[in-house]
Amino acid sequence: MVMHNPPHPGKIIKELCIEPLGLTITDAAKGLGVSRKTLSALLNGRFGISPEMAIRLSKAFGGSAESWLIQQSQYDLWQALQNESKIQVKAFA
Fold first, then answer.
1. Can you tell me the distance from the alpha carbon of 87 to that of 67, in angstroms, rounded to the nearest whole number?
2. Count of C-beta atoms within a 10 Å radius of residue 36
């Protein structure tokens, strides 16, 4: 079930993982093994969580890779549902 207007996972990562630990984006990016640009884009909602990033987040901050991907999937589905009326298809069933 999709929650109502879920936050982008980047916001969750920033507010619940990075900020409480007092990490800078640069330090967090180094720890995750990604560029600062990549992490910044994720935290600011310009990128989503890929399966590889989900594994990195799981190893760095805990939780399962699946749980990180579920958060991204819920966000993506909610965004798509906002334009559901514009999606035109022919029903086959």
1. 28
2. 14
Could you tell me the two tokens for 41? 């884009």
Q: Give the number of other CB atoms < 10 A from CB of residue 67.
A: 12
Instruction: Tell me if 69 is assigned to some domain.
Output: yes
> How many domains does the chain divide into?
1
pTM, two decimals, is 0.89
Q: In this structure, what token pair is assigned to residue 22?
A: 């007092």
CATH number, domain with residue 42: 1.10.260.40
How deeply is 52 buried, as exposed, middle or buried, from its count of CB atoms within 10 A (0-12, 13-18, 19+)? exposed
- Tens-digit pLDDT profile for residues 28-39: 999 999 999 999
The range of the structural domain enclosing residue 51 comes to 9-82
Task: Judge whether 4 lies within some domain.
Answer: no
